[in-house]
Automatic annotation (TrEMBL), chain A:
Taxonomic path: Bacteria, Pseudomonadati, Pseudomonadota, Alphaproteobacteria, Rhodospirillales
GO MF annotation terms: ATP binding; ATP hydrolysis activity
Endpoints of the signal sequence: none
Entry protein name: ABC transporter ATP-binding protein
Domain ABC transporter per the UniProt entry, residue ranges: 4-241
Amino acid sequence: MSYVTVTDLHKTYAGFPILERVNLSVEKGTFVSIVGASGCGKSTFLRLLLAQERPTRGEITIDGQPPALEPNRDRGIVFQRYSVFGHMTVRENLIAAEALGATVWGVLPSRARRKAAEDVADAALERIGLAHMGKAYPASLSGGMQQRLAIAQSLIAKPRILLLDEPFGALDPGTRASMHDFLLEIKAEWDMTVFMVTHDLSEGFKLGDRVLVFDKVRWDPHEPHAYGATVTYDFDARNGGIPFQSLSIETVEEITV
Amino acid sequence: MGYALTLLPFVLVLFVYMGASDIRLAENPSDKILPAPSTIVATAERLVGEPDKRSGEILFWNDTGISLVRLALGVGIAALTGLVAGLLIGLFPYMRSTFSGFVAVLSMVPPLAVLPILFIAFGLGEVSKVALIAIGITPFLIRDLSQRTVEIPSEQIVKAQTLGASSLAIALRVVLPQLLPRLIQGVRLALGPAWLFLIAAEAIAAEAGLGYRIFLVRRYLAMDIILTYVAWITFLAFIIDLLLRSAGRRLFPWSEPAGGSGL
């Protein structure tokens, strides 16, 4: 069943179409990688999913909810940078994931809920391997640690979908590889529906169940801004992107046995 | 070596002053324009130690107390106003379109030109002096803090929204804490003008205060008293700046920039 449904989505900035006729249906628990050249509208698509911006036409629904007008707790986001609060310690950042939305003042209303949030935060610290850094401020963390914290912070709010905007773009290759493993483990644990924008094709295929490519289908050399982009390829990337080959090998094995 | 270099310009200035003073005093031993350092020290000792014959109070400490209270009130009111207005203007687009132009124009009004209005409106008492300081530095603080608010990465605001935060929660829990260290920096920068407005207001109409005393004894060419007061004001300003800086470091350890905080 479709969990995230995108229907006839258009987005236009100052008369220039960026996205046009995007239709998409994503099942719960799918990891969707979004790739494409710079300026192809993949970040715009993510902002529309986030409800940071509203579509010019068409709509996005998540789990049958009415389209959102502003970012809310249904959507978790991890940006490339500035995703955690620099003025809070690592542990406070995780507690804030519960506290900010708890009351209109952004504080937990009772001692019991405070204790519960602290327990959740401590468990998360343990899980992401930052238990020894709980009292540190994010500025003293490495880039990989900051992104692990940002992901944990988003997941504590239990969003329906998790959005990742080039989350590992600022990391070195070694850290990036270990972040991939971390993210795959997390995904298996939480059965999250994830949308990740990335520049790195191999990263997209390694992590994604589906890889969407955004590109312009129509192109006028005299009017490069005349047309918007849409989903041009929709790969099934499970089993390392070669589901049919593995199927055939299994079949061959069956035959030989 | 570092300390020696720091002290060097001070020592040089002292030597130049002593030389010039010597030359003038050699020509005319009763010269009042450049009193000898020994005279200044003697005067300073008298000022801080001997009570006034009429009131029985030591005027030096009395002046200091009165001026510091005026300064603290003026700067405090300005800081609070600047913080609240800066946050609202920086965070909410409607506030920005309504007030940012107004504040920009307001900050161009020369505060000293408004001083007569304050005297007329509030009388010659404490209110007009505190008001001058507050009016003088509030527009600067509002503009500075609203700009700092705008500079907070939008990612942080969006992130807070995805955690379910209301506008109030974003203002109080995300923006306000990040503004406080910047408020301290802004106040440190505004303290120079604040002292200027304090001394100007005291010079024109007051019955006590550091600026009042300097302008009073100017009539008698009492350079030894003036120099003592100037040195004392400089010292106070320096100490206040130092206290604010260390308070900022202690209260907001996360805000320390990587390359140190400069002067």
